[in-house]
Design goal:
52 strands
Length: 1494
């Protein structure tokens, strides 16, 4: 049996009690219930230990602090050692060594237990378990105990295991902490770094703390003075300089709260406060922490508080609800007051200790706030403030004099004050702390109390008196608006502050109304003033006396007196000339000190000595100088300074202009300053003027006489209203200025211009608004002046002969102003409309001048147009008005007016001139700037009316017939755009007119037949096809010969038109079977071509003998034999062929044409019918039909529509001898009409959709965006000009084919070559108007469809168009419109966009089928997802879907972004039954597929 030492038995006993001893477990396993119970208890205990060690000790430095606290609690041999704790940190573990006496059995059991402690008055806590936050295993070697706690074993944190000794220091306790992972070393290092030096401050035993990081070390040592008050903490480090912290410790023993169960035997406890100090013994201010032997946390104090606070189990906060702790906190103020005696004895703290007090804004912990309030109250009631006399006083009895001092000494002696002054030893930044404890700033009331106690002020110096007056004036008086200065402290009147002659001092209640003497000021004469001189005094004393009621003689008073004198109407009160000069000089000298003079308030003499208001007199800036002759009186005036062309006012302005008296112009004082002598000594005033202020290099220095003279003139003008420039009255020139202009404009134009140059700024300054300036300049611009060439022209039409004007710009007729070598000073002339530089107005005037010239070339005009285009924005409105007012369009060698020109138009134009033919590169100038429009399609009305007027009643020549055809062809091409015709076609005289005349039939068959028998219009059938839409518009279809011819067919002697006759013919069974196999082809063609003939239900073929066809028109009749005829009867197609028609001719083109006409199909379907008869392979025939737009039919559509009127109409087949390759026989009028309508697309009567367009709202509806479909509400009320030309389109028309496909060969290039669908045009025009109104840079050039020509814009070929609209969105306007500024709607496109817009318009709803061509579909595929760009912009394909056109309600416009993506996502769907598909595989992909198959 093994033997164990006593220490090992202790370890085994602990494990046994924890249930982890091997022998105990073996015994427990024998009883399953007992074993399960033990296991449950151990599991719960294990989990509790983990929570307690991890959660309770959340602060990072807590484990290290617990080790330090436990080291201080250890027992030491204080005689032999100084208690020391060493931390040695390594990457995987840390050693903690302490030179304590060592573990006892009791210590071991407490360390391995929970809630056990060897500390006195403690119920125990698990502080030691905090080490398991970073450690998985803790080993202890102390004296004879060597054990370890391993958290990874069962109850390892409280169940020790015996280990081998490992301590390297004899008689030291060593603890090894093995880290649980590789990151804990850094965490523990952070804990060690956070340990503050003050951790040893309140340790009872521990003196040294040493930390070894491996790469560096630090050491902290605590030293306490012999008195116990001063403590120093020394810190040495291998990486940083050594530091020492000093503290003043104040200890206060207090009675303990005896009812605390955690301190059952405690009768007293200690509260300590440590004040941090600098090396010099002054306060070291920083936020400090509260200690419970170890640092806890900051509470808002700048001093350290240490006490035996009871804390939570985790030692991280004070338990505020415990009265034990509340008792300690209540003792803090008394402890602080105990420190005051220590502060007063220490020089560094005597005036500085208040820095330890918190600021009002500092946040004190709520638990400590009551103690802080108590401390404040104690400080405010104690004698803690040192006074100026060296004594200590209560704060409320101490004053801070601040401003109430002189040379740093309080004004009032303490013998006259009830308070004391604070000592000057307190630094300035401590003053706020003084105020916090109750020290008060000295107030003005304190000063008044002291002054009231002084019986005589004679003993005080004048400097002291000046300072007192300054303070009394500043704090005892205030200014009340509208009243003046007021005494805020009435006691001031009782102060004897007014020094009187003889040495007496009086208060203000004893004084009378007096005037101070006005020092250093010349008082002008003739004002009737009495002046009192009280002698000199200090400034503040003088001001105070003024506020106390002593009245000074002010310049304002003098100013007011002068105005009163001049306002008198009596000539007796007016001053003499010399006195007037003195008064004016005084006003001039004090101009900045007195209010502005009312204009006209001062009366001044003119040259004759007559007084007038100053604002009615003139003053020359360079005036006449008085010449003083000692032998004559001073009224002699010298002659003015001679000048070649004088611009002086006096030399140019005549009566009623009046000029100032010369004495006022140059007053005595200024003349004396100019001459340096007396007024009487002046001899040569002219030389004086030239030398002083007329020379350019003299007279600009501040304070010189010349500058004073210039300032004098400015003052006369600005303050008195004396005119220094020609006067302007209410925005109009004065009479004298008008007379001067009219007097010199023809005789001396150069003088006039020089005069205006000199005085224009002065004139301009008098004009108060831009309207007045405009009116004045307009007047001057309209003045006619004589030019260099002798001509007389308005100023606004003249030119300044500046350096840029050369021979290429001017000619002999150019009106140049008579100015030699003009410089930059003449630019003011442009205000009058005179051209002084090559700007827009210059070139506009050149163009206007050319308009009257006889020598004009297109090149010169083109150059001027280009100049105006480049400078158009300078005077845009002026240029537009000129072109609308004057004939400035030079085309065809003549000047044309606005109404005579268009920018572009058809070649047929004769009444208007097309500017584009001569100025094609200036489209921006004429179209964008001048808004010159293209010719409207309705121009044809004017052209035809003019043609009818020119040729009425005359026979037309061949050329005239060609001209008429061109007009009618253009009218046919634009018929849909013309609202109504205002001409009568009957007045147009053709080759000759008879009672009855006819139009050729489109096929030419009947025209050839009756050409020699009837009178036809002089147009061929080919020409008739071109003008067919126009014929329909003019309701002339009744004149067509095919509408007037009756047709009769006789088969074997029986008339097919005779219902009473019956035809007996033999049925051809083989032919019948063949044609019935093609019955579905005929039915499908009738349906998809929307034939007006009811869909047939059967086909039968007959063999007959002879067939004769007779055509009758009036009395004329033509009969011809035929080989075949086709007719309808009761829904059955009857084909009758002559027995002479053999072989393939029975299924030839002539038979196909007869069947086509019988079925009501258009002529272009002849090849399709012929193919149906010739093709044997039905699959190939099906492909041809589908490619032609003829698809399959449902059985429901195959119903027979019985039409009694059309069931018996025959369609005979003509023979080749007629001479036409595909001649047709005549049919009834209704059949022919149906055929004509089908050929031209006129399926039904058209109706205007104007009512539906007018039903639009007058404002835009809100725009909403759902997914990638954009609803756009468009107001059509502003588009009546084109809406009235749009016609209703039948909703049953096919959606995938144009409704009016018309080609006009040989028509003018300006006219459209393809009408397209009227519905398509309406939709595109709607989209254009909408985008043009929303996007400022959207023009017709963005409309890239051929249909834009119908709106009057230049045509465009289909090859040039990628879509109906193309728009580069430079400013994001369309993007914002489509996506409301959110580019996510265009993801992944996030750059500048270039939109290609395709418009799809239908009469039905949005969900109706619309047609997309193969090219359009490929376009949408190429541009999907923004994967193509053009010139740096992403190309975006958009469908604009317009529905509901012509339905009587407003159309709906929606935008579909990236239609290919919408097709993939299911928003768009292909509705065609068959889509042609071809496989396209890249070579590399093909090779990969083949490899995969192999």
């Amino acid at each position: 049996m093994a033997t164990y030492t006593r220490e090992q038995e202790v370890i085994r006993d602990i494990r046994r009690k924890n249930g982890v001893d091997d022998e105990f477990c073996e015994q427990a396993r024998r009883d399953p219930v007992l074993w399960q119970t033990v296991q449950n208890l151990k599991s719960n205990l294990q989990q509790s230990l983990k929570v307690l060690s991890a959660d309770l000790y959340s602060r990072p430095a807590h484990a290290v602090l617990e080790i330090i606290q436990n080291a201080d609690d250890n027992a030491y041999d204080m005689v032999k050692v100084e208690p020391t704790l060493i931390f040695t940190l390594r990457t995987d573990h840390m050693l903690v060594e302490c030179n304590e006496l060592g573990f006892t059995e009791e210590n071991v059991r407490a360390f391995c237990g929970v809630g056990l402690s060897t500390k006195r008055n403690s119920s125990g806590y698990i502080g030691a378990k905090s080490i398991f936050q970073q450690s998985s295993k803790v080993s202890i070697h102390s004296k004879n105990f060597c054990f370890a706690l391993d958290r990874n074993t069962e109850l390892g944190m409280i169940s020790p295991q015996w280990v081998a000794p490992f301590s390297q220091r004899q008689d030291w306790t060593c603890m090894r902490l093995d880290f649980c992972d590789n990151f804990q070393a850094e965490s523990v290092k952070g804990q060690l770094d956070n340990v503050r030096e003050t951790v040893l401050l309140f340790m009872r035993r521990l003196v040294h703390l040493h930390i070894d990081y491996g790469s560096s070390t630090c050491h902290v040592t605590r030293r306490i003075s012999t008195t116990g008050e001063d403590i120093s903490i020394a810190h040495t480090s291998s990486l940083q300089p050594s530091n020492t912290w000093h503290f003043l410790r104040i200890t206060n023993c207090i009675a303990a709260y005896t009812a605390e169960p955690k301190r059952p035997d405690a009768t007293g406890t200690t509260v300590e406060i440590c004040f941090p100090l600098t090396e010099a013994g002054m306060p070291w201010i920083a936020w400090q922490m509260v200690h419970a032997y170890l640092p806890l946390r900051g509470v808002g104090f700048k001093f350290i508080i240490q006490a035996d606070f009871l804390t939570a189990a985790n030692r991280e906060d004070i338990l505020g609800h415990l009265k034990w702790n509340q008792n300690i906190v209540a003792a803090i103020p008394h402890t602080f007051m105990t420190a005051l005696t220590h502060f007063q004895c220490r020089p560094g703290l005597e005036f500085e200790w208040l820095r330890y007090l918190p600021e009002p804004t500092d946040r004190i912990d709520p638990f400590f706030q009551p103690a802080m309030h108590t401390l404040w109250n104690m400080l405010r009631s104690a004698r803690i403030i040192k006074c100026l006399d060296g004594t200590y006083s209560v704060p409320s009895q101490v004053r801070i004099p601040h401003i109430f001092t002189i040379n740093g000494i309080p004004l009032l002696p303490t013998t006259s004050t009830p308070f004391k002054y604070v000592s000057t030893g307190y630094p300035e930044d401590v003053v706020p702390h003084l105020k916090h404890v109750g020290v008060i700033d000295m107030s003005f009331s304190d000063l008044m109390d002291g002054l009231m106690g002084i019986k005589s002020f004679q003993e005080f110096s004048s400097e002291w008196m000046e300072r007192v007056c300054e303070l009394v004036m500043t704090h005892g008086t205030s200014h009340v608006p509208g009243i003046g200065w007021n005494l805020t402290v009435p006691r001031i009147r009782l102060l004897r502050l007014i020094p009187m002659k003889g040495g007496a001092w009086m208060n203000s209640s004893d004084t009378t109304l007096l005037f101070f003497h006005l020092e250093d000021t010349h008082v002008p004469p003739a004002l009737g003033l009495s002046i009192v001189d009280l002698g000199a005094s200090k400034p503040y004393q003088r001001q105070l006396l003024e506020r106390l009621g002593v009245q000074p003689l002010t310049i304002q008073f003098i100013h007011q007196r002068i105005l009163e004198v001049h306002a008198s109407t009596s000539s007796r009160t007016r001053p003499g000339l010399l006195a007037l000069c003195e008064q004016l000089h005084w006003l001039f000298e004090h101009r900045f000190e007195v209010p502005a003079l009312p204009i006209g308030a001062i009366m001044l003499p003119d040259e004759q000595g007559v007084f007038s208001p100053a604002n009615s007199l003139y003053l020359d800036r360079y005036p006449i100088i008085p010449v003083i002759d000692p032998h004559r009186d001073r009224s002699h005036v010298a002659h003015p300074v001679p000048s070649e062309l004088s611009t002086r006012l006096k030399d140019n302005l005549q009566h009623p202009a009046k000029f100032l008296h010369p004495t006022i112009t140059l007053p005595t004082r200024i003349v004396e300053d100019l001459s340096g002598g007396s007024y009487d000594e002046l001899r040569s005033p002219v030389d004086l003027v030239r030398q002083t202020f007329m020379a350019p290099h003299i007279g600009h220095e501040a304070g010189t006489p010349a500058q004073r003279l210039a300032t004098w003139y400015d003052w006369l003008q600005s303050s008195l209203g004396v005119a220094i420039a020609p006067r302007v009255i209410d925005g109009r020139p004065a009479r004298e200025l008008v007379d001067m202009v009219l007097r010199t404009r023809l005789k001396e134009p150069k003088r006039l211009l020089l005069f205006l140059r000199t005085h224009w700024n002065g004139i301009q300054n008098q004009l108060k608004s831009s309207a007045e300036l405009h009116t004045f300049c307009n007047w001057l611009g309209s003045v006619e002046i004589k030019c260099q060439n002798g001509g007389i022209t308005e100023m606004r039409s003249t030119f300044l002969p500046t350096a840029f004007v050369h021979l290429d710009q001017m000619n002999d007729d150019t009106p140049l102003l008579p100015i030699d070598e003009p410089d930059a000073g003449w630019t003011f002339l442009k205000d009058f409309g005179i051209s002084v530089e090559p700007d827009a107005r210059f070139f506009l005037k050149r163009l206007l001048a050319l308009m009257t010239s006889t020598e004009v070339t297109a090149a010169t005009v083109r150059a001027l147009y280009k100049q105006l285009e480049a400078r158009f924005d300078e005077i845009a409105n002026e240029i537009r008005e000129a072109f609308q007012k004057y004939p400035l369009f030079f085309v065809g060698g003549q000047w044309r007016h606005w109404h005579q020109v268009v920018w572009d138009g058809p070649q047929i134009l004769t009444m208007k001139w097309r500017m584009c033919t001569q100025y094609s590169t200036l489209d921006e100038f004429f179209q964008s700037h001048l808004a010159l429009r293209d010719a409207e399609p309705a121009i044809l009305v004017e052209e035809l009316n003019q043609f009818a007027l020119d040729h009425h009643g005359t026979n037309l020549t061949v050329e005239q017939e060609e001209r008429l055809f061109q007009l009618l062809a253009y009218g046919a091409s634009t018929v849909d755009l013309i609202n109504e015709w205002s001409f009568n076609p009957d007045i147009i005289q053709l080759t000759y007119i008879r009672a009855a005349w006819y139009l050729p039939d489109p096929s030419g068959f009947l025209f050839d037949m009756f050409r020699s028998l009837l009178d036809f219009i002089a147009f061929s059938p080919a020409q008739l096809i071109v003008i067919l839409p126009l014929i329909h518009h003019l309701h002339l279809e009744a004149r067509r010969v095919d509408r007037c011819v009756a047709e009769t067919t006789i088969v074997d002697g029986v008339s097919l038109q005779d219902s009473k006759s019956s035809l007996h013919a033999k049925r051809n069974l083989s032919e019948t079977n063949f044609f019935r196999s093609r019955l579905s082809c005929f039915q499908r063609m009738q349906h998809y071509r929307q034939s007006s003939i009811p869909i047939i239900g059967s086909v039968t073929c007959y063999n007959v003998g002879t067939i004769t066809n007779t055509h009758s028109c009036g009395k004329q009749r033509v009969s011809q034999p035929c080989d075949c005829c086709v007719t309808l009867k009761d829904g059955e197609l009857l084909i009758m062929a002559s027995v002479s028609l053999k072989g393939h001719h029975r299924r030839g083109v002539l038979v196909a044409d007869a069947i086509r006409r019988a079925l009501g199909l258009p002529e272009e379907d002849i090849p399709l019918v012929a193919i149906a008869l010739r093709y044997e392979e039905l699959d190939e025939l099906e492909l041809v039909f589908r490619r032609s737009g003829v698809h399959g039919l449902d059985a429901a559509l195959l119903h027979v529509r019985v039409d009694a009127q059309s069931g018996s109409l025959p369609y005979p087949l003509g023979v080749s001898r007629v001479g036409r390759g595909a001649s047709t026989s005549a049919s009834s009028h209704k059949a022919t009409l149906s055929h004509a309508n089908q050929a031209t697309g006129w399926l039904h009567d058209r109706k205007s959709i104007v009512p539906s367009l007018a039903a639009f709202n007058s404002s835009l509806n809100p725009i909403e965006l759902e997914a990638d479909v954009k609803d756009l509400a468009v107001d059509m009320s502003n588009h009546a000009s084109w809406a009235t030309n749009v016609h209703h389109i039948d909703s049953n028309a096919p959606r995938d084919s144009p409704l009016v496909p018309t080609s006009i060969p040989g028509a003018d290039a300006f006219a459209t070559r393809n009408h397209g669908s009227s519905v398509g045009y309406v939709g595109e025009k709607l989209v254009y108007d909408f985008l043009h109104s929303q996007l400022h840079d959207f023009t017709y050039q963005n409309w890239t469809s051929e249909l834009r020509v119908k709106a009057g814009f230049p045509g465009i070929s289909a090859a040039e168009s990628l879509a109906d609209f193309s728009y580069r969105d430079e400013h994001g306007l369309l993007t914002k419109l489509l996506g409301q500024g959110d580019y996510t709607a265009m993801a992944p496109i996030r750059r500048r966009f270039h939109y290609l817009i395709e418009v799809k318009s239908t009469t039905g709803e949005q969900g109706d089928i619309f047609h997309m061509s193969r090219l359009q579909f490929l376009q949408s595929w190429r541009l999907t997802g923004g994967r193509n760009s053009h010139n740096g912009a992403q190309l975006v394909y958009v469908l604009f879907r317009v529905s509901g056109i012509g339905k009587g309600s407003r159309p709906v416009l929606k935008a579909y972004l990236d239609p290919h993506q919408l097709l993939v996502r299911g928003n768009l769907r292909i509705e065609s039954e068959v889509v042609d598909v071809r496989i396209v595989i890249a070579p590399k992909l093909n090779a990969l597929i083949e490899t995969a198959i192999v």
